[in-house]
Amino acid sequence: MRTFFIVLFCVVASVIAQAQARPQSDIIPQPQELQFLPGTFSLPKDITYTLSVDKGTAQVLPSLLTEYLGSKHKLKQKRKEGIILLNNSNAIENEEGYELRISDKQIVIEACSAQGFRYALETLRQLQGDNNTYPQCVVKDRPRFSYRGVMLDVSRHFFPISYIKSLISEMARLKFNRFHWHLVDGGGWRMESKYYPLLTQKAAYRTEEDWDKWWHNRDRRFTTAEEGYGGFYTQEEIKEVVQYAMNLGITIIPEIEMPGHSNELIYAYPDLLCPSATHNNATDVCIGNEEVFTFFERILDETMELFPGKYIHIGGDEAAMNHWGNCPRCKQRMKEENLKDLHELQSYMIKRIERYLNSKGRKLIGWDEILMGGLAPDATVMSWRGENGGITASQAGHDVIMTPNNNLYIDYYQNEATDEPRAIGGYVPLEKVYNYNPTPQSLNEAEKKHIIGVQANLWTEYIHTPEHASYMLFPRILALAEIAWTAHERKDYNDFRRRATHYLPQLEERGHKPYQMNGITLHQSYDSVQKAVVLKFQPERSDAVIRIAEGYSPTVLDKAVDTQTPYIYKGKSPRDIHVNLFANGKKLLPNDKIYRTPAHLAIGAKITYHCKWNERYPAAGENSLIDGLYGTPTYLDGRWQGFTEPMDMTITLAQEHKLQGVELRFMAEREQWVYMPKTVEVQISKDGTNYESIGILEPKTSDKNPRPVFETFTFSTDKEARYIRIKATIGRSEGHFIFCDEVVVY
Description:
The protein is α/β, with parallel strands linked by helices. The strands form 8 sheets. Strands 8-9-14-15-16-17-18-19 form an 8-stranded parallel barrel, surrounded by 6 helices. It has a 7-stranded mixed sheet with strand order 1-7-5-6-4-2-3, with helices on one face. It has a 5-stranded antiparallel sheet with strand order 27-29-34-31-32, with no helix packed on it. The chain is globular.
């Protein structure tokens, strides 16, 4: 019997050892199917390869092998039984799909196109270990979406060709296939035009680099290259980049913005404005002017000569329409075309431009505003204002690319704003990007097929340099790559954290400056059974741990035990807790993060609103402000309740209490028209009829601060009360917001 247990122990230990030794996948994006087998394969310096592919693919593959395997290897083609075997396979139905098998003797790749072989080699590159060893495995892979894109805005700030190429190279490694190049916008015209040379002579360089100073100056002047800030790409440079991208399997989609976002264009050619408009009070071209269509047709002709892909992006977003209604030419156009409003006037232009593009064998893409007034017949919609535009377009049978700002605008902050370089506003951390699913459940299966892909957008109002652009892009586009490629059910954020952490040093080796994933993700809930606030903290980095301590002293966190368990607080008054990240026993953050637990007497109480919250920002409705949950650093998270009229409500506790205080937390985000209230007042009562004020407070926050700011208004008392009335006045004029996440009564 003793011998049996010894043998059993050895068998179990062997199984455990094998399981522990089995390699983990560090591949991004994660393949659809991946099975590791025992053992490794060593690739020698002298490599023989065998091709069993069509003639066209055979011309491409030798250079691909050289590119992916590196110059350290000598490659020689062999008629059969090469170390690497590449086969055309009819069994691979997806044009970008592939199968990769690594045994102890050979690497076999099967695909039905050069692009499929390229993606297999990208996977092979990520599988490479030390000393040219590869784990034995079987990979069966194909993309989830046919369109997998990243957009870079080069109008607000100009980026050199070298950086554009480096970004495209990183995109290719991550199996993206579309680079959306936002070439023209109000900040500057970036594409050389032979037809209209004044576009670059007059509107490629502006008088001020700082976006706020220039954009908020009513003059918004441009100047010469010698005196100004900016730049443009020559047609030869554009051809060079287009070819570079094509060699890496990426199609570039140019954007020629119309009819709005055009103040740089109308600065160079003011005749394209409505008669009453000037370059500093208008951003739209005049749709009633036939010369506008001549202009765009010629510009699009040049664009199509430079960019061979089937898609041309025409913008179509955020037209101000502030001069069309009074413009005689626009009114005449509306009369002649029987257009009932300004949205239909814009739609007329989009449809006419689409017909022109279709006549040249191209397809139109536009932002979701092109839905207003009627969608062009064959247009593809990029849905950026949430998902509603994409849902509407797909239900109407149009192809859609999902790019909602709440999830995929990577010019938004990725960590708390106080720790980050200036951004436009909003909050899109890594986990929020990763968890996005581009196919809304409200669509049926036929409608879901019209969701052809996803894209992240990097607008550059506050991004001046390639280093800052890389900081904003990485690692968030690693998460996007997995959304775009990997089946939703195969995604695993915890495993992705590990792979992304592993990927960061590789990006640095290639000259990028990625965000170091030093954020702390907080998941909150209220346990109604335990009557406790539950806080679950998670580090973004997989090689970091969390330490938590109540109160504060300089050594508390250094001595605290590493934990991934939830923090449960059952108190009836708020408590500050300190949190920090540690790796190898050392703090990663110079300053502790301080979280205040919103435990209080009013959780689950009755609340009566004497005002209306804004229907766009209801949070969780009636109980949002007394649910024991604070909002995150963005007003878009569904926990901040928004008001555009004075806030007025009464909280009724279950019984009378001797109170210590009342706290209300508000946020301000100037760039999104969200400001602190002008005043906040708290009144208390025993009977619900006779109230006394315990204070009126004004904000300490400056409304000139461009970053998101959070301020807690604290009212102290030692009186007994059952009823608490809250009043907060709007801090700015009509149309501006105040946002509150919790009223804490203790």
